[in-house]
Design brief:
Length: 197
Amino acid sequence: MDYYQIIAERFQGTLESVALSVDQLAGPVGQASELLTASLLADRSIMICGTGADAALAQLFTTCLLGGLEHERPALPALNISADGASLTAIGDSEGQGQRYSRQLQALGPTGDTLLLINSGNAGSAQAQALSAAVERDMQAVLLTHAGDALLPAAQPATGATISVNAHQRGRVIEIHTMVLLALGQLIEVSLFGHRE
């Protein structure tokens, strides 16, 4: 097995996808960072969720906001609602798996908070109900999704932001989502605390 060839193809494919997507992503990423920053400036929280690998991305972004990326700074209020296994199991058992995020948003997400919903695969009931719960509670919503997702963008209100990655392989979507989340974290930091050397 030629490990070098596999790694080179993987990185080259990701770089090509990113290069093709930068022009398409710049506007939506900018809009999403402004929405997230405005929420934080209004002393609101960002609630983040995703399923499977997207739950790990939700934790990455939560950690970026709580801990910082490049420089020491105050923690920013962020909550990964897909990280608490006990709550997710309890809600799933009593209310159904489709409500594992929406129930948390109904309890913890007041008006003015923002939901960041990450979807790199097939959007299911849990994601759709989470977006619906956010809309019902007058929360802002930022979707990080992909070209094959027709369900969530169709339900997104005009006041929200949608970042749709133009990739079709889930691994490639996750790679680009990771870069987008890190860029969002950096944009938020710069907006709130300015450039630092």
